[in-house]
Amino acid sequence: MKDALKIGILYSTTGPYGAMGADARDGAMLAIEDNAKKSGRAIEPVLHEPHASLQGYLDGSQKMLRADCRHIVGTITSAARKEVIPLVEKHDGLLWYMCPYEGFEANESVIYLGGCPNQHLIPAFEYLIPRFGARPYLTGANYVWGWEMNRLARELIANAGGEILGERYLPLEERAVGRIIAEIRERRPSFVLNNLIGPSSYAFLEAMKRLGDSDPLFRPESCPVVSCDLMECELELIEKGAATGQLCAAAYFDTLDTTQNHDFKSRAASRYNHERRISSVFASAYAAVDLCIGAILAAGTDDPAAVRREVHGTKWPSVLGTLEIDAQTNHAALPFHLGRINGDNGFDVIASRPALAADPYLTARGTAMPAKLRIVS
Questions:
Q1: What pLDDT digit, counting tens, does each position of 324-362 carry?
Q2: Based on the domain organization, do 217 and 76 belong to the same domain?
Q3: Residue 127 lies in a domain
Q4: 187 lies in a domain?
Q5: DSSP-assigned letters across all residues of 111-130
Q6: Is the confidence at residue 286, as pLDDT, over 90?
Q7: Model pLDDT for residues 62-72, shown as the tens digit of each residue
Q8: What is the b/e burial string over 162-186, where b = at least 16 CB atoms within 10 angstroms of the residue's CB?
Q9: Considering the chain, what percentage of its residues have pLDDT values greater than 70?
């Protein structure tokens, strides 16, 4: 391997989820720079900007794969991931996907470093239901993430003997949330599951703040909004103070008080700036590139089959903790953290669990839903 290692970076930094894409790109680039210094190897990032277009993702992945770039780190949404996978399979490449997603997928051509529902949604519900009750309202982006996350939520709530009080969807950039807010005001749920994305999510959180100001029953301490896809890099895009007190589940938060995280943030600050908060997509993209390059160097080749063998056979230190990739599903075991948004555009961690083995099809316990999910009065 005398030539430069080529690593494809495929993130949209524009459009409704542009803030997440920009943070993921920056995390990936930092990992490339760190690994080049550490290994002494030339590492060439092959960048493509898809502008939040599915055709743009296809064009970018095709360009990379035809240029002998066999490893692509990228895509934010499940829609983009599902578009790219057939091309990666066709060209014998490997996609490194690092965003939380809705599960029910395992592909030999994908390494999954983002959480699936048993690593974010289920433990979040196990925290929420005993404290707030099992009568939530569900919102979602009108595509696979929103549909599937809310489908699972319906099953979880039925399993807990509860009731879904409403379920509404919005296009990715729709900010008209008045009908949803009116239904929430009328039906008075115990909490709200927010699977909206980007501008829709921001507008919804701002409207919930106004609702809580007019009626204390809808303040975060009484009726919290919980998300599994809201990041530090997005909080500055929300009206100041509107999201304070709301909850988010993630494998990483900037405020984690560990030596490993402090060291990571120091390296990021030296490359970017000291005021920047590190989001879970920044950290996960860094971990994905770091793991990808480490496995290629350990294998002595960028051949995906050899790289997968290295990935499966080793425990990999990372900012997310020690990564173990399951050989059957290609998914990483990940920790669970529940963060409460504070007034400083960050998250205070209020609950955590150590690394949970991924169960993308929810079959590990022999049942589709965890039996221990029960209402606690």
A1: 999 999 999 999 999 999 999 999 999 999 999 999 999
A2: no
A3: yes
A4: yes
A5: EE-S--GGGTHHHHHHHHHH
A6: yes
A7: 999 999 999 99
A8: bebbebbbbebebbebeebbebbee
A9: 96
By C-alpha distance, which of 208, 196, 206, 204 is closest to 171? 196
Domain boundaries, position 270: 5-114+257-335
How deeply is 257 buried, as exposed, middle or buried, from its count of CB atoms within 10 A (0-12, 13-18, 19+)?
A: exposed
C-beta atoms surrounding 266 within 10 Å: 10
Q: Given phi > 0 = left and psi -120 to 50 = alpha, else beta, which region is 170?
A: beta
The alpha carbon dihedral of 298, 299, 303, 305 has a sign of: negative
Contact 282, 20 (CB under 8 A): no
| Total number of domains constituting the chain | 2
Q: Decide if 153 is inside a domain.
A: yes
Same domain, 183 and 81: no
User: Looking at the domain assignment, is residue 64 inside a domain?
Assistant: yes
If pLDDT is split at 50, 70 and 90, which confidence band does 367 have?
very low
Same domain, 152 and 239: yes
* Pairing of the two strands 71-74 and 94-97: parallel
Question: For the domain that residue 246 is a member of, what is the CATH number?
Answer: 3.40.50.2300
